[in-house]
Amino acid sequence: MKSNYKIFNGYIEGYYGRLLNWEERGKIISKLKANKMNFYFYAPKEDEKHRLHWKLEYDKHWVLNFKNFCKKANLNYIKVIVGISPGISFNFLDFEKHGQKSNDFNTLFKKCQFFLNNGADEIALLFDDLPNNFKNVFGKSFSEGYAHASLANQLLFFLKRSIYVVPRIYADQLILEDKNYLVDFGKFIKKENITFYSGKNIVSKLIDKSTILNISKVIPTRFVIWDNFYSNDYCPRKLFLGPYIGRSSINHIMINPTGLIETDLLILDIVKATKNSLKPNLEWKKVLIKHKIPIQFYDVSNYFLKPDFGNNPRLRKYSSSQKTITSLDFLLWKWKSPLSREWFPFLLGLKHDLQIIENSFSSERVIKTQTKALANYIIKR
Q1: Residue 144 to residue 134: CA distance in whole angstroms
Q2: DSSP string of 210-275?
Q3: Residue 324 neighbours by CB distance under 10 Å
Q4: Cα 164 to chain center, whole Å?
Q5: pTM, to two decimals
Q6: Nearest-10 crossing angle of helices 103-117, 144-159
Q7: Residues of the chain with pLDDT under 70
Q8: What is the SS3 assignment for 2?
């Protein structure tokens, strides 16, 4: 069955280091409905049965919570995509030889059926962030792109529905790892399937019509942008909270944010308000006011606006003043809310950094507040 959704937008629970609970996922569902978004993509790296031990079954308590979650999503007109990431231990040689009769395919097929039988709307296969060792494991003559496409195609055939696929090469910057991967993947993947891709970079500065055109030259399926604009699992001391810019013409796009529940609820409002706005900064400030974020945050917001993009990001200039420190002190010690508690380590980390740069930190304070490796580097400097 071919997927006929006109627009794909919503939330991806696809980050490392954090795992939402079911109550928090329910809050995301409510926010998606309020913002007229339509998908929740369940693919958390920290769920061991999603990736590391994908062959294991979930217990009864988890299944009950999942059913209730899917029911709430359905009542709010949100579609649930459930991802499985089998590539870390899937036996592709056995699958190539025996097809649907291979042990791993049978396990994967049953797990897909389990999710669908318990409320999921769609199934996704994820091959992102796998070691670049496929040929070492399965032989130099065996194409990884073909193997991943073939597995998705088999699931398409037996489940009778489109399969969502995150290929191992999911951004242009990764192509150098295997120049043939996307060529082979695009050659063999069935058009009924749907592919996730991140654009030029894993964290792309701009996603526009030319981005879509470049992807479509290689991948023949419909595709959705997996956007890491707000993601911070690769830089856990940083947080990105600015307007959602550089994506205004893109409809099929989903965000993979932070896993901090209050922050992600804010981010979903920012995305809705600023993505297609002609005055994104104005709309962004309105969202901050709605969420009761103190005006002192504007004094330090430049440190939290957007990621440093690309393969070779430029070193951006910084400027601080006593007003910056004063505003940080207010946010740290006088602002009390669920958001302030999530942001505390980021705000305090920024204050420490500024104090170190301005030489107002003693060696003792550096040693107390920084890792041993960084403390040694700073003090020697």
Answers
A1: 6
A2: HHHHHHHTT--SEEEEEE-TT--TTSTT----S---S-TT--SEEE---S-HHHHHHHHHHHHHHT
A3: 19
A4: 15
A5: 0.96
A6: 50
A7: 1-2
A8: coil
d(CA 47, CA 377): 36
Residue 168: Cβ within 10 Å count: 22
**Residue 104 has what pLDDT?**
97
Residue 126 near residue 152 (C-beta atoms within 8 A): no
Domain ranges of the chain: 9-285, 322-380
Q: Which of 32, 33, 11, 10 is nearest to 20 (CA)?
A: 11
Q: What is the fold of 9-285?
A: TIM Barrel (3.20.20)
- Per-residue confidence (pLDDT) for residue 316, from 0 to 100: 80
Phi-psi region of 299 (alpha: psi -120 to 50; beta: other; left: phi over 0): alpha
- For residue 163, the one-letter residue type is I
CA 55 – CA 53 distance, rounded (Å): 6
Residue 14 Cα to chain centre, angstroms: 5
Please state at what angle helix 181-188 crosses helix 144-159, rounded to 10 degrees: 30
